[in-house]
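U., I forgot to send this yesterday:
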Amino acid sequence: MGENTTKVAVSLPTETYKQVERLRRQMKLARSAAVLQALRLWLHQKQERDMEERYAAGYKQKPEHPREVEPFFQAGLSSFSPESW
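Result:
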């Protein structure tokens, strides 16, 4: 793996283990690589949720004023062509 590693042992429900084994074989992944990939994805998703929660909390503390949004609204309107439907 090239980096410092730590060996861990985990217990899984038998059906989950079978599903993981089936999928990792189809993907031709070593068990460690499959678990590492899943954990990295989980950590990434958790980090994104945390950032979204911080954004929402900040927005609640200091929401945009309509005056700040108007130029973006107008720019969006200008992208529509005046075609008749």
